[in-house]
Prior knowledge:
70% of the residues lie in helices and 0% in strands. The protein has eight helices and no strands. The longest helix is centred in the C-terminal third of the chain and has 23 residues, at 105-127. The model has no long low-confidence stretch (mean pLDDT 95).
Amino acid sequence: MLPKWHILFGFLATLILKFTTSLNDTILLVIFFSSFLIDVDHWLLYVYRKKDLSIKNAYNWFIEKKKKYLILSAKEKRKYKHPLMIFHGIEFWILLFILSIFSKIFVFILIGFAIHLLFDYLEILYLGEPLYIKFSQIWLCIKNKNKKKFY
């Protein structure tokens, strides 16, 4: 999903929380920013692959890759690895949950991540992609074995 949509949906979800909970504005900002900054892992993948720090170039690279990927047949898509997004998997969520024992701020980061992933899952379902690509990064690595790199 494009960043602009994550920002919009994160804003709307945060707005709903503002009027339905007693959370203070600082906590709401943490939730809002977490709802889209989780995608920093996309930029990190780009930096790792291309050795370039440009956010604009990373955005354009992912847009181009996604366009090419989406026109492939389902059979062709199965030949390629899905990119590893370290902040999108249950493994990172477990780490945040453990950290939330020590600081409640991580609970609110988890809420922002949940908002983000809800919309990622909806997009994945719409595109007919397997849910594991955003559920478990360990399982993704297993499923990616012996496949060709696309991203």
